[in-house]
Design brief:
The complex is a heterotrimer. Chain A is mainly alpha-helical. Helices cover about 65% and strands about 0% of the residues of chain A. Classes of the chains: A mainly alpha, B alpha+beta, C mainly alpha. Chains A and B meet through helix 3, helix 4, helix 8, helix 9 and helix 10 of A and helix 2, helix 3, helix 4, strand 7 and strand 9 of B.
């Protein structure tokens, strides 16, 4: 059978990673801050995203602590409102949207394509600096008098409240452009820099995921940009576009905002789909089931995502006709999503399943994302949505898909690529323990919220009527478990950085191109341009070797 | 985190007392059903629930089964199959769910149309949403901060917001609509069981969003009209100070003005009458009847130093009688 | 095929691995294999960027459509305060600058350094003219109190517009330097009073027009300024004779951006100035 001609011509390529790799190639802080190497930019993003996740998570724990009792527990109403606003803004704009594409995709995408870098390395660095600038503006808002509008910035509350909304809006605006440029970079890279033989249908599905995401980033985010800019101008100069007191229309803001923010939630989840598509075949030792359907369903989701924004606005006073169109198309989007889940599960049929930490996260994803996905059905059904919208049911739904979906996949991907990125194996025991704690915490935090919500508990509530307290207490306990799970996972990962870089080249036996170069990779990626002759999920040629703790190519072994 | 000056102005707002519960309910997932639309919507909810539960059990069951059955014994273990597609199966599960989803959509659409099509001859109540209070106005001019409706009759609520977005949410009736400043929205319902149920604000509107809770009292059909007539008369017959207190609670004054001396969004009414206040421009004003009346009708004319220009006007909303009542009430806060 | 290159990223040493194309071509970046690949990538990139710019403006065009459909009176009333002649001047200036920009690309391709610099300078001059005219229009609005939202306070200066001099009788002597002709007044009067209940008073929500006007032309103006900065940068490179048949990408991309800026104005002009 055909096999990929790899970069080195020696019988079994030695893993030179420990001696000279992209991490050790140049020294000094300037070599990082002015780097054009996509791998270093990815690592910088990773540090930033994890830090922002810790910040957003701290806000979440404060929120859940406050909600242990009705009435005041630790903060007053205004501080609480600021907490949930910043929790949302930080998590959405600083963590999940950049998360997988910037912190993992930047590293992996060029390697998956057999390329030396992304198409526009300087633009890539600029995207990172824009992330940092956006984060600084968000922090400014936090320090001055944190915005209290909710991350959705609905007018006219956002045009009239006295808190520091403009820094938060500016931060989100800049972060939007960081996202646009990353997407632009990825699209050009995928179109123009594929290695010879790497046809579209031989691409890893992670690349398809990043591609679909990039399309959404490029087309939807500018609309957010103009919306936030108009809101800044409205707040600063009283222009009167959204504020009814000045002749504006508050519902128009909602249309503009959700036109971006609905594709945004797909920007958050489609890369996660890509990560899961990488992990499951490798750890089932079996080709991914239904490759074409998964690839094309990502693109279908990207296109359909632009047509459903009104399902956030069924009770806004929108017309019945408009609502029905949005509802119908939302049901359509459920189909490509369901297809993916079924294909992933089918991949495991008659495979050989290895339950390493990345696979645990992937399995967790399947479970939790399915629950999150089906609860979306309640919300696309117009009649039930009238009762459920703006309640905790919606909060639980999006946390299941965003936390249980995107973040779980993010951590799965982090563990999967950790040996490649840093050349060190993570600690399998704490990895598994962490994932189990996250799973328990996640479900305990958010499942009671479904029940609360359908029973009538509205969202963004500082106080609540006492009958909901048991649910809130259960949810808060879950949040502490969830936070603890992430804490030990992160600490354990960081500790590995102090070990020697002795991870094998291909610990998992994956067939995508990044596993054919050293761990960590050399700064120039590939010695020679790879020529690809088969799909990304062919495992027959890889064989496990206990001595190196990883897999090696049968066809390249000396004497074969 | 917050600017300390703003912290002073925004003291905590308590949840009103005597908020009714949404229990007991025959359902685990849903509150007590108390309107004609509750049953059909609950049926639809249950349909979606069953579809969801069955899908989850199926998928998760398969996953757990595969993981257990095909668990690798060692690293050397390889899979026994390399099938990577099955067109028939893939088409089945792409097209198969369509009728199930279509049913959901059609049923949901019909329910929505029913929720949003107000029947003729409905009993009309005007609802005003403002930070952070609901106000209901009845056909005979009576106003109240509690919604009273007759059992078994269709009720149409016409809703307006004074300042920012709010949302009128009656969980027991399974209905909700946003209150948008600058336009009117409406919803309708027909109660099926006398009792008291909560009304929540469901669109974030600031500090007192979670305190913007009131209730709907469903009266027996026979006695409702008489009750409304008596209530209307009772308001007019109230002595000024009691009328003022009622307005204090109903019209939203309590949201910003305390009675115990602590400053909130606005100055406290304790010891206010006869006081000499310093205005934001430095001038000094004696708090008398004229000043209070002006502050109610044209609040931006004079603003006490240390407070923001955020009070809404009550011009056209409060009759002279009610304003006199408020003045009497303020006088009584020594 | 012509060996074209693009992008001004200079290779920074490591990663060459003996690739001949890199050694001979200082403008070929290390991560691209051939100059053609680099040029195509750059071209694709700039087109994607232009798509994002179109979507960026689309929000404003959408707001324009919504508000004009809801309140056509306001837009018709408002546009009288825009000087159509100045708008037409700006339009022709921008169209001409698109010509010089396209010409500049040709100059770069043919190594015509002198002509290239001249064309870039002409483009810059046109852009500067545009901004000056814009400044003039904006200061007129500021002067006349024709500002958006809560700042909307039209004052007597608006009488200079022929359509409104009959507001409360003729303006006091000496107020108008150049009183409008009788025919212009009658024509404007006929148009304005056609079916409108608001004869000489601003209609309700009149400020909306100016909100849309300032947002759209302001955002466009910012893009013109950005374009000027980009052209100045191109000028510095052109002065150093960097461009030629093997390397003209940056000028090409700058011109594409400039054409979009022009195109957006070509939509703005009739939508705002020619509502009739």
């Amino acid at each position: 059978m055909a096999s990929t001609t790899t970069t080195a011509d020696v019988a079994v390529p030695a893993n030179k990673g420990a001696d000279d790799n992209y991490l050790t190639h140049d020294k000094g802080i300037a070599s990082w801050l002015l780097t054009l190497d996509h791998k270093r930019i990815s690592v910088m993003y990773f540090i930033c995203v994890i830090s922002a996740f810790a910040l957003g998570g701290t806000f979440a724990l404060l929120i859940r602590t406050e909600l242990l009792t009705p009435g005041r527990t630790i903060v007053d109403a205004d501080t609480y409102n600021q907490l949930f606003t910043l929790h949302g803004a930080v998590m959405v704009f600083l963590v999940i949207i950049p998360g997988i594409p910037a912190a993992i995709g930047n590293f992996v995408l060029p390697l998956h394509l057999g390329a030396k870098d992304v198409a526009f390395p300087k633009l890539n660095l600029m995207s990172w600096y824009m992330w940092v600038a956006g984060a600084c503006f968000m922090l400014t808002s936090l320090i001055v008098s944190a915005a209290d509008t909710g991350w959705t910035f609905y007018t006219p509350y956002s045009t009239t409240t006295l808190t520091a909304v403009i820094p938060a809006l500016t931060g989100a605006f800049i972060l939007g452009f960081s996202s646009i440029f990353t997407g632009l970079n990825f699209i050009v890279t995928i179109h123009k820099m594929r290695a010879p033989g790497l046809t579209w249908f031989r691409l890893p599905l992670f690349v398809w995921g990043l591609y679909s995401t990039a399309i959404m980033q490029v087309l939807a985010t500018p609309v957010l940009g103009i919306t936030l800019l108009m809101l800044i101008v409205e707040r600063a100069f009283g222009i009167g576009i959204f504020d009814p007191a000045l002749g504006g229309d508050p519902v128009l803001f909602q249309h503009f905002f959700w036109f971006y923010s609905h594709p945004a939630v797909y920007i958050m989840i489609v890369p996660a789909f890509g990560v899961i598509s990488e992990i499951i075949p490798v750890f089932s030792r079996k080709r991914l089931f239904g490759y074409s359907f998964i690839a094309l369903s990502s693109v279908a989701i990207a296109i359909l995502s632009f047509l459903v924004w009104g399902h956030h606005m069924f009770v806004s006073g929108q017309s019945v006709l408009a609502g029905s169109i949005f509802s119908a198309i939302t049901f359509l989007i459920a189909i490509p999503t369901a297809i993916k889940v079924l294909n992933w599960i089918s991949t495991m049929y008659k495979g050989a399943i290895h339950l390493d930490t990345p696979m645990l996260y992937a399995l967790m994803f399947l479970w939790v994302f399915t629950i999150g996905g089906v609860t979306g059905l309640f919300l696309s059904t117009m009649a039930t949505d009238v009762h459920l919208t703006d309640t905790y049911f919606v909060v639980a739904h999006f946390h299941y898909v965003m936390m249980g979906g995107a973040i779980t996949a993010f951590f799965g991907g982090v563990h999967y690529w950790w040996p490649k990125i840093f050349g060190r194996m993570y600690n399998e025991k704490t990895g598994q323990l962490g994932s189990v704690l996250v799973f328990i915490g996640l479900n305990l935090t958010f499942f009671p919220q479904f029940i609360m919500g359908s029973r009538g508990m509205p969202r963004r509530y500082y106080n609540y009527i006492p009958e909901f307290q048991p649910f809130h207490v259960a949810s808060s306990i879950g949040a502490y478990i969830l936070g603890f799970g992430f804490l030990i996972t992160t600490v354990s990962l960081i500790k590995t950085l102090f070990k020697k870089a002795d991870a094998p080249m291909n610990p998992w036996g994956s067939n995508t191109l990044e596993w054919t170069i050293s761990s960590p990779p050399p700064y120039y990626n590939f010695d020679k341009v790879p020529h690809v002759t088969e799909g990304p999920y062919e495992y027959e040629d890889w064989e496990y070797n206990e001595k190196i703790g990883g897999y090696e190519r049968k066809s390249l072994k000396a004497g074969t | 985190m917050m600017n300390p000056l703003l912290t002073l102005a925004f003291a905590p707002i308590p949840v009103p007392n005597n908020v009714p519960t949404l229990n007991p309910s025959p359902y685990f997932w849903l509150p007590v059903p108390a309107s004609t639309m509750a049953q059909p919507i609950d049926d639809l909810f249950n349909y979606v629930m069953w579809v969801s539960v069955i899908s989850c059990l199926l998928l998760m069951g398969l996953m757990i089964y595969f993981v257990t059955k095909y668990r690798a014994k060692s690293r050397k273990d390889e899979g026994t199959s390399s099938s990577d597609h099955h067109t028939g199966l893939e088409l089945f599960w792409s097209i198969g769910p369509l009728p199930v989803l279509l049913a959901m959509f059609v049923w949901g659409f019909q329910g929505f149309v029913a929720l949003r099509t107000t029947p003729k001859d409905a009993y009309e109540v005007h609802v005003t949403a403002q930070k952070w209070k609901w106000l209901f106005e009845y056909p005979n001019g009576y106003t109240d901060d509690v919604l009273h409706v007759p059992n078994g009759r269709k009720v149409r609520a016409v809703i307006n917001a004074v300042d920012v977005l709010h949302s009128f949410f009656l969980p027991a009736f399974r209905t909700k609509i946003d209150a948008v400043p600058g336009r009117y929205t409406e919803l309708w319902f027909e109660p099926t069981a006398p009792g008291t149920y909560p009304i929540f604000c469901a669109e974030y509107c600031g500090t007192g969003h979670s305190a913007m809770i009131t209730k709907v009292v469903v009266h027996e059909a026979a006695s409702f009209d008489k009750w409304l007539e008596d209530a209307g008369k009772a308001i007019d017959a109230l002595p000024p100070e009691e009328l003022g207190q009622k307005m204090y609670n109903q019209q939203g004054c309590s949201g910003c003005h305390s009675l115990d001396g602590s400053p909130k969004t606005g100055p406290s009414w304790k010891g206010l009458f006869g006081k000499s206040e310093t205005m934001s421009d430095g001038s000094s004003v004696n708090v008398d009847e004229n000043y209070i009346r002006e502050s109610i009708l044209d609040p931006q004319a004079k603003i006490v130093r240390g407070f923001g220009p955020v009070m809404p006007t009550f011009k056209g909303k409060l009759s002279d009688k009610k304003i006199s009542g408020i003045i009497a009430f303020i006088k009584a806060q020594k | 095929m012509t060996d074209t290159t693009a992008d001004s990223v200079t290779g920074h040493g490591h990663g060459d691995h003996g690739d001949a194309a890199h050694a001979h071509n200082p403008f070929l970046a290390h991560h691209f294999d051939t100059p053609l690949q680099q040029f195509e990538a750059g071209k694709f990139g700039i087109w994607l960027f232009l798509v994002t710019e179109i979507l960026f403006f689309s929000g404003l065009f959408c707001a324009y459509t919504v508000y004009r459909t809801l309140d056509p009176d306001v837009f018709e009333w408002g546009h009288y305060f825009l000087d159509t002649k100045l708008g037409a001047l700006n339009t022709s200036v921008l169209i001409f600058s698109s010509l010089t920009a396209a010409w500049a690309v040709r100059n770069a391709q043919l190594s015509q350094h002198r002509a290239l610099c001249v064309n870039i300078v002409l483009t810059l001059l046109c852009a500067a003219t545009f901004m000056c005219v814009k400044y003039e229009e904006y200061s007129h609005k500021f002067h006349a109190g024709l500002l958006p939202g809560k700042h909307f306070q039209p004052n007597e200066d608006v009488w200079e517009q022929p359509a409104y001099w009959k507001k409360n009788g003729p303006p006091p002597d000496g107020l108008l330097d150049d009183p409008p002709k009788k025919e212009a007044i009658e024509k404007a009067d006929k148009i304005i009073t056609r079916g409108h209940p608001y004869r000489f008073q601003p209609p309700p929500n009149a400020a909306r027009f100016f909100g849309i006007y300032f947002c759209m032309t302001g955002l466009h103006g910012i893009h013109v300024l950005a374009g000027m900065i980009i052209w100045i940068w191109m000028l510095t490179k052109a002065a150093r004779k960097q461009f030629g048949p093997t390397y003209y990408g940056p000028v090409d991309y700058a011109a594409l951006y400039w054409h979009l800026v022009d195109l957006i104005w070509i939509y703005l002009f009739p939508l705002l100035y020619l509502i009739d």
